[in-house]
Design brief:
By secondary structure, this protein is an alpha/beta fold. The protein has three domains: 320 residues, ABC transporter type 1, transmembrane domain (ABC transporter transmembrane region fold, Up-down Bundle); 173 residues, 3-Layer(aba) Sandwich (Rossmann fold); 66 residues, no CATH class. Helices cover 64% and strands 9% of the residues. The strands form two sheets. The chain has a six-stranded mixed sheet with strand order 6-7-8-3-9-10, with helices on both faces. Strands 2-1-4-5 form a four-stranded antiparallel sheet, with helices on one face. A hairpin with a 2-residue loop joins strand 4 and strand 5. The chain starts with 7 loop residues before the first helix and ends with a helix.
Length: 590
Amino acid sequence: MRVMKISINDVNKVYWQHIKPYLGSMAIIIGSIIGATVMHLSVPWFYKLFFDVLFGDTEPFGGTVKSTLLLIVVLIFLVGTCVNIFWRISGFVTAHVQTSVTRDLERSSYSYLLDHSYKFFTDSFAGGLLRKVRRLSRSFETVMDKLQWSFLPLIVSIIGIVIILWTRSPLLSIFTIIWIVLFTVLNVLFSKWKLKYDEERSEVDSEVTSVLADGITNSTNIKLFGGHGFEMGLFGDVSRKYQKLKQFTWNLNEINNAIQGVLLAILELVIMYYAIDLWLQGVLTAGDFALLQGYTVMIIRKMWDIGRYIRDTYEAYAEAKEMVEILNTPHAIRNTKSAKSLEVTGGEIKFENVEFSYAKTRKVIDKMSLKIKHNERVAFVGPSGAGKSTIVKLLFRLFDIQRGKILIDGQRLTKVTHESLRENISLVPQEPILFHRSLMENIQYGRRDASKEEVIAAAKKARCHDFIMDLSSGYDTLVGERGVKLSGGERQRVAIARAILKDAPILVLDEATSSLDSESEVLIQEALEELMKGRTTIVIAHRLSTILKMDRIIVMEQGNVVDTGTHKQLSRKKGIYKTLWDIQVGGFIQ
C-alpha cells in the first residue's frame, strides 16, 4: 500500500458521506442545542433583575418586591425546565444518529477492507486493521460529541454574551472578544503543533496492538520454541515507546493548561476591575455584577475546556486518518466498469504468454502458454519456486498478471467480475483455514443456501461425517480460531466437503491430501475421484503418488512449462519429473 498524506478534510469527507442520510435528525439536534443554549444565557439576566429589585435599583413589576422576586424565581425555574427538555430531545436524537452512523462507518470500512487485494492482507496485521476500523467509528463519536456538546454551545454562548455585554458596556464586550480570539488562536496553534505527536502516538498504538495480535496468534510457536522471554522483550520495547510518547503528549497538555489558567485569571481580574469602576460611575447596578459574574464564570468554564475540546478533536482526527488512508487507497484488483459475469460452458482454461512477478527482480511466471481442455484433469509438478501455487493465485485473480492473457472459455479474467469468477472455481488449499464457527457453518460456506441434509451428504463424501458425529456437539461444534481445535487432516476433509458442496465446474486442489495419513488419503482419493468427474481439474502436488491417474502432468521450472505428458510417459524419459519420482519413490525402495 502506497503512503499518502491524509488531511482532516479527507476525514471530514468520509464523515459527511455517512451523515447525509441523517440530515433531518441533525437539524433537530442542532436546533435543540441552540434553543437550550440561548435559554440558558437568559438565566444570568434574570439574576441581574433579581438583585436589582432586591437592592432597589429597579422598581417591582406592578406588585410588591416579594411577588416580583418570586415571579423571577418561577421564570428561572421555567427556563431551566425548557433547557432540560431541549437537551433531552437532542440527547435522544443523537443516540439514534451516532449509533447509526458508527454502525454504517464500520460496515462500509469492513466492506471496503475485504475488497482489498491478497497482497494487502499479507502485508498487514489483522489486529492492526481491526483497531483501525474501530478507531474510525470512535473518532467520529468524539468529533461529533465535541461539535454538538462543546463547540456549538460555546459559539452560541459567546455570541450571546458579547451582544448582552455590549448593552451594558461596549468596552467590556470588545475586551471579551479580543480575549476569546487570542485564547482560541493560541489553543488552535498549540493543537496543530502537537498533532504530529498525536499521530505518531496513534501509529505506535497500532504497533502495540499488532505485536499483541501476532503473539497471541502464534502462541503455540512461542511455547514450542521457548520464545516467551523474547516476545516479552519485543512487547516491552514497543510498549515503552508508546508510554514515552503518551507521557510526552500528556506533559504538553499540562503546560498548555497552566498557560490557560493564567489567561483565565487575567480575564476575570480585568472584567471585575473595570466593572467596579463603572459601578462607581453609576453606569452599572448591583445586579450587573451578578450578570457579569454569571457570564464570566460561563466563559471561564467553557473556554477552560476549549483547549481540551480542540486537542481531543485533533487527536480523534489523528486516530481516524489510518483507516481513511485505507479507504482512500484504490483496490489493487478491481472489476472494470464493463465487467460481465463469467459464463462457464465447458471449463477450458488458457494461459497465453503470461508473465508475472511479485517483485521486479525475478519473474515467477515467464511467458507461459498453456491450454487445459474441457473436463481435463491436469497436475502441476516441479521443484519449489517453480510457480505452481502462483498459477492458482493468478487463476483466482488474487494478483493481476503483468503481460499476456488468462481465459476461461474464451473470456478474459480481467473482463469478468471477481464474484462470478470465484463462484465457478472450487479450491481445496494446502492449509485450510476455517472460521471460528460451527462445522455446519464452515461446510455450508461453500454454498450458503444449502440445506442441512446437503451439508451432511457432502461431509459423507469427504469422509468427515464420522469424526464429526463423534464430537460432543456434532455439526454444531465450534472449531476454534482458524480451525485450531481440529487436526490438520480433519481441517482438510472439512475443506474438501466445502468444495464438494460448492459444486463448481472448475476444481483446484492445492496439495489437498498433504495433511492426511495414509488411511485417510485412500478414503479422500476416492471422494476426490468422484468430485473430479465432469470438471476441469487442476492439481498442485508435491506428493507425486497422488497424481498418477491425471490425464496430463505439466512439469514446471523457473516459471515455465518444460515438459508435459502422462505419468507413464514422463517416468520413462530423463528430466525433472523422473528425478522427482526417483527421489520420492526410488529412495524408499533403496
